[in-house]
Automatic annotation (TrEMBL), chain A:
The keyword Ribonucleoprotein belongs to this UniProt entry's keyword annotation: no
Cell compartment(s), UniProt: Cell membrane
Name used for this protein in its record: Sorbitol/mannitol transport system permease protein
Location of the ABC transmembrane type-1 domain: 70-260
Coiled coil: none
Topological relation to the membrane, as annotated: Multi-pass membrane protein
Record has Lipid metabolism as a keyword: no
Family of the protein in this entry: Belongs to the binding-protein-dependent transport system permease family.
TM ranges: 12-33, 69-94, 106-129, 141-161, 182-207, 238-259
Annotated source species: Rhizobium herbae
Keywords linked to the UniProt accession: Cell membrane, Membrane, Transmembrane, Transmembrane helix, Transport
Gene3D superfamilies xrefs: MetI-like
InterPro entries: BP-dep_ABC_trans_perm, MetI-like, MetI-like_sf
TrEMBL record, chain B:
SMART domains: AAA (SM00382)
One Gene Ontology MF term: ATP binding
Membrane topology recorded in Swiss-Prot or TrEMBL: Peripheral membrane protein
E.C. number(s) listed in UniProt: 3.6.3.-
InterPro entries associated with the record: AAA+_ATPase, ABC_transporter-like_ATP-bd, ABC_transporter-like_CS, ABC_transpr_MalK-like, ABC_transpr_MalK/UgpC-like, Mo/tungstate-bd_C_term_dom, NA-bd_OB-fold, P-loop_NTPase
Pfam families assigned: ABC_tran, TOBE_2
Organism: Rhizobium herbae
Coiled-coil intervals, chain numbering: none
Keyword flag Membrane: yes
Record's subcellular location: Cell inner membrane
Protein name: Multiple sugar transport system ATP-binding protein
Keyword Kinase: no
Annotated keywords: ATP-binding, Cell inner membrane, Cell membrane, Hydrolase, Membrane, Nucleotide-binding, Sugar transport, Transport
Stretches assigned to the ABC transporter domain: 4-234
Length: 274, 333
């Protein structure tokens, strides 16, 4: 029997949910509002009504080339996601379908690399990048972002793959599919929802990654995170410009997230209910 | 072709020995059923033949060719799984065509074979559906279709009917038997259900703890079980066993009598007991009778044998129908 829910309860819960959602969304909203203010307005104090000027956007674009950063962000996030999937699909496949006694340990070890603060390896990584001439290069940063997100990607795919009955893969093996045939014709199509949401999440993570992207780049390979940073450090008091830069940086991923939210939610809850 | 020979096949998972060493000959065209309680190694044995598991030692030969190290697809076998293992993202047509596509056959030939298989299995109207849109029985037929298009030298069935309801199971049992008569291909069928084993098999292999207890035709096993395990496993309801003073007159350590080989009387007989639960099936009645010194004894009587709970009855084993066993549980003949 369905649980009876009174109208009053529904209203209260709905209002509460809206309040929580607004609190979470507010920083982003206020950034967007501030970006449409003039610099004087921005420092005057709290106000939700901007004058609507777009002078900050003009100033930001004039000061640095937004599209170059945007393009770098796209290349880095898509490139690192592609690379991560290329490595993690076979890795997750082998761990999900032919696990050994050490599989669980390997998974934990992978995750443990995410528990260490990134700054702890800053110096060695920086030196490696310097010596291999990878500083401020898209290739170097793509590899770096791949490595950072690889544990999460493998973990997610591993969980999705575990949901796929092993008998189906065995059937494919009996039917004459080679190892790659099995992965390509059977496993991947069945895991599409999982792979898609992993991909989306990885793109978002890579897009927003700020620690390494800022430290290992200067101009050539700098993505939008570095673009925002370039406004915050020397000109920390120019709130309107900083807000405009931030809005420009988060807009693409926000739009992508909006359109793929169904896929994302489905992916994140995949397998929770059979 | 379709001779399969196992020579000293052994399988261990780590330190656990699942199959200690099996020798078995399966002849061309035979319907062989591996039967045994769960965990007896019957599925493992099938998977060893399929190549989905590697043998720890011993050899497997198909048509005289050593395939012990050969990949599953190269053994010329087709398998039907318990869960059907259909490809959910492909239509029925593509499911059936998949092994042929993997073999890189000519598309026109694939189409012809798929159409033919669909006709044989009554799937013609469902070719463009996804497995998710089919009933359990139809899904199982698709799985069988996927197996027959390959024209394998042998079919392997791993408990294919256990996900179906009782009525459908009966129908599919007939269909598979019928298919065997049509194709005349070797079939190896794994089940824990001795009724399936008895009704379908040419040859039954009874397994227990990884060992073959007995190999024989269904009636062979029924009439002449080699040991207590086979005697108790084959036949439904189960054989009744008795020891001590009950087996002494027969010069045996223990004796076994099937429920259908006990004569009942309300007047006199060899064993005296009190009627417990009576299961009326209409054609037959199964009486569960408490006999002092044995415990619960099952007897099959005619549908209209009138006794009720608590009545006293007498049981007499039929002459020549008593199975005798020595202290190791082996049959005395």
């Amino acid at each position: 029997m369905a649980r009876a829910v009174s109208t009053r309860k529904t209203v209260v819960v709905t209002i509460f949910a809206w309040i929580v959602a607004l609190i979470i969304f507010f920083p982003i909203l206020y950034t967007i509002i501030t970006s449409f203010k003039s610099e004087t307005e921005a420092i005057q104090g709290f106000s939700l009504i901007p004058s609507g000027t777009v002078e900050s956007y003009g100033a930001v674009q004039a000061q640095s080339n937004y599209f170059k950063f945007f393009l770098n962000s796209v290349v880095l996030s898509l490139g690192s996601t592609f690379l991560a999937l290329l490595i993690s699909v076979p890795a997750a496949w082998s761990m999900a379908f032919s696990p050994t006694a050490k599989t669980k340990d390997i998974l934990m070890w992978m995750l443990s690399t995410k528990m260490m603060p990134a700054v702890a390896v800053l110096v060695p990584i920086y030196l490696i990048f310097r010596d291999f001439g990878l500083l401020d290069s898209r290739i170097g940063l793509t590899v770096m972002l791949t490595m950072i997100n690889l544990p999460i990607v493998i973990w997610m795919l591993y969980t999705y793959f575990r949901e796929i009955p092993g008998e189906i893969l065995e059937a494919a093996r009996m039917d004459g599919a080679s190892l790659w045939g099995e992965i390509f014709y059977v496993l991947t199509p069945m895991a599409v929802p999982g792979i898609a949401s992993t991909m989306l999440l990885n793109i978002i993570l890579a897009w927003n990654e700020a620690f390494w992207t800022i430290r290992l780049t200067t101009t050539n390979a700098a993505p939008l995170t570095a673009f925002i940073a370039s406004f915050s450090s020397p000109q920390g008091l120019f709130w309107a410009k900083l807000s405009a830069a931030s809005t420009l940086a988060i807009a693409p991923i926000l739009i992508m997230g909006w359109f793929s939210q169904k896929q994302l939610v489905r992916g994140l809850t995949f397998g929770a209910v059979k | 072709m379709g001779n399969i020979q196992l020579k000293k096949v052994n399988k261990s998972f780590g330190a656990t020995q699942v199959i200690p060493g099996i020798d078995l000959m399966i002849n061309e065209g035979e319907f062989v059923v591996f039967v045994g309680p769960s965990g007896c190694g019957k599925s493992t044995l099938l998977r060893l033949i399929a190549g989905l598991e590697d043998t720890s030692s011993g050899t497997i030969e198909i048509d005289g060719r050593d395939v012990t190290g050969t990949a599953p697809a190269k053994r010329g076998l087709a398998m039907v799984f318990q869960s059907y293992a259909l490809y959910p993202h492909m239509s029925v047509r593509n499911n059936i065509a998949f092994p042929l596509k993997m073999a890189k056959l000519d598309p026109a030939l694939i189409d012809k074979k798929v159409t033919e298989a669909a006709r044989v299995l009554n799937l013609t109207n469902y070719l463009d559906r996804r497995p998710g849109q089919l009933s359990g029985g139809q899904r199982q037929r698709v799985a069988i279709g996927r197996a027959i298009v390959r024209e394998p030298s042998a079919f392997l069935f791993d408990e294919p009917l256990s996900n179906l309801d009782a009525a459908l199971r009966g129908t599919m049992r007939l269909e598979i038997s019928e298919l065997h008569h049509q194709l005349k291909t070797t079939m190896i069928y794994v089940t824990h259900d001795q009724v399936e084993a008895m009704t379908m098999a040419d040859k039954i292999v009874v397994l227990n703890a990884g060992n073959i207890e007995q190999v024989g035709s269904p009636l062979d096993l029924y009439h002449r079980p080699d040991n207590i395990f086979v005697a108790g496993f084959i036949g439904s309801p189960r054989m009744n066993f008795a020891t001590g003073e009950f087996s002494k007159p027969y010069n045996a350590h223990s004796i076994g009598v099937r429920p259908e080989h006990l004569q009942l009387s309300t007047q006199s007989g060899a064993w005296r007991g009190v009627v417990g639960v009576a299961e009326h099936l209409g054609s037959d009645t199964f009486l569960h009778i408490h006999v002092d010194g044995i415990g619960l004894v099952t007897a099959r009587v005619g549908g209209d044998f009138a006794v009720t709970h608590g009545d006293q009855v007498f049981l007499t084993p039929e002459e020549g129908r008593v199975h005798k066993f020595d202290d190791k549980g082996l049959a005395i003949r």
